[in-house]
Design brief:
With 459 residues, the protein is mostly helical. The protein has one domain: Amino acid/polyamine transporter I (Up-down Bundle), CATH 1.20.1740. It is 72% helix and 0% strand. The protein contains 16 helices and no strands. The longest helix is centred in the middle third of the chain and has 46 residues, at 278-323.
Length: 459
């Protein structure tokens, strides 16, 4: 044991800081599920029902299949480049270092906004359950809790996420059982099974389904956070691909089950008392006030898990860029020697989350999140096409479907989602993107020099 520690110490003296490979496949899957949240369709359920004219489960299923295409690209790029930095690393090495910086800059907006969305969503739930708590006090407390946990290190975050996941499944499991019991007791076993949530000929409309599918894609935002931990994963070439795809598969199946039962319990989407909290009204129908309050608690716990995972993902993305000296290395590339944790980045993201939660509302924050996410997704899909189909060595066999068609379809879907964003989100997001473009131009003397890209793929 002492010999291993000695070798690690000598390695640290010879090169730049590295993250330890301590996470296994189950850690990654838990992490991915929590950052997406098992209750991901709950906040968007009512709006998705209205937009799709009663076909929310169909939109979530279609969006899930499409996002799996992008998850496959992320997993394959992580197998080639098992590094911290996610889209930044994959696009930078798969396409161009300058494009990699811009992809990382766009994705940093995604991860910086994710904790803000989580905090605002948690407060909206608290406001319905405990309306006396002031907004600013709750936001400050929430940010302090998230930052304190993440400062303890990634293993603490992983253990916390597992605990949060267990609590969410207890309440959601109760909903599933009570919803089935409610249907069976009211109309018999045959009422549990129906194709109406997937296809109702009286209300089905392709245009409505397309619009709602763009919105339903929010269910899956955050799955790529798994790849930001690539440098801390045991056997990253295998486990990152499996964890990324399996996270999307689980989210699709579980979300469809939740929404399907909710649609069977409350089929008339025109009659929700409050469209923004429609799922909570469904839980009150099947389980009364107890389940209603339990679901509120679950939403708060889910927001805590999403905020935790979003903050640690943003901190590690900034670490990847800081270590490569694209951002100032002394600050963003710093690792706490005691906990092997990018401490400055965790604090920096916490401060941004506090300010953003006080300045933005949920709608604007969600739109900005989508702007950065889909730009990064498009970049990774293009990088996967180039790496696996166009520049493979002559000894490697090319596969049209897996190497070209799948990532190309992922790119087309993400482009459609990005084009559907509101104008305000495009303007604000473009300003962020322009700042990154100008900064990169300044650091590279008008793009004449190549950004430093450190390769740890063999570590």
């Amino acid at each position: 044991m002492s010999e291993v520690r000695s070798r690690l110490a000598q390695s640290a003296l010879r090169g730049p800081p590295r993250l330890r490979r301590v996470l296994r496949l189950h850690d990654l899957i838990f992490y991915g599920i929590v950052i997406i949240q098992p209750i991901a369709p709950v906040p968007i359920y009512g709006i998705a029902q209205e937009l799709s004219r009663g076909h929310a489960v169909t939109t979530i299923l279609v969006a899930g299949i499409a996002m799996m295409l992008t998850a496959f690209s992320y997993g394959r790029m992580a197998a080639l480049y098992p590094l911290a930095g996610s889209a930044y690393s994959y696009v930078g090495r798969g396409l161009n270092p300058h494009l990699g910086f811009l992809a990382g800059w766009a994705m940093s907006l995604d991860y910086l906004v994710l904790p803000i969305v989580a905090i605002i969503q948690a407060f909206l739930t608290v406001q319905r359950l405990l309306p006396a708590i002031p907004y600013s006090a709750w936001v400050t407390f929430f940010v302090l809790v998230l930052t304190a946990i993440n400062l303890l290190g990634v293993r603490t975050t992983a253990r916390t996420n597992i605990g949060l996941l267990f609590a969410m499944f207890v309440v959601i499991g109760a909903f599933l059982i009570l919803a089935i019991g409610y249907l069976v007791h009211g109309q018999g076993m045959r009422s549990v099974f129906s194709i109406q949530p997937f296809y109702d000929p009286g209300t089905f409309q392709l245009r409505a389904i397309a619009t709602a599918t763009s919105f339903a894609a929010l269910t899956y935002i955050g799955f790529d956070g798994v790849t930001t931990l690539a440098e801390e994963v045991d056997n990253p070439r295998r486990n990152i691909l499996l964890a990324t795809v399996l996270t999307c598969v689980f989210t699709t199946l579980f979300s469809c089950l939740l929404v399907y039962l909710a649609q069977r319990v409350w089929p008339d989407y025109h009659t929700f008392p409050n469209i923004e909290t429609a799922f909570m009204d469904v839980t009150r129908t099947v389980g009364g006030a107890t389940l209603f309050r339990g679901m509120g608690a679950v939403i708060m716990l889910g927001s805590l898990g999403s905020g935790l995972s979003g903050q640690v993902a943003a901190a590690r993305l900034l670490f990847g860029m800081g270590r490569d000296n694209v951002l100032p290395r002394k600050v963003f590339g710093y690792l706490d020697p005691a906990r092997n944790n990018p401490t400055f980045n965790v604090i920096f993201v916490g401060l941004l989350a506090l300010m953003g939660s006080l300045l933005f509302d949920l709608e604007r924050a969600g739109e900005l999140l989508n702007f950065g996410a889909f730009l990064a997704f498009m970049g990774v899909n293009l990088a996967a096409v180039r790496q696996y189909y166009f520049i493979k060595s002559r000894t490697q066999e090319r596969h049209l479907i897996g190497d070209a068609l799948v990532p190309a379809l992922g790119f087309v879907f993400c482009l459609g989602m990005w084009l559907s964003l509101p104008l305000v989100a495009k303007i604000v997001g473009s300003l962020w993107f322009a700042v990154g473009l100008a900064y990169n131009a300044f650091r590279t003397r008008g793009f004449r020099t190549r950004p430093v890209m450190i390769d740890f793929s063999d570590s």
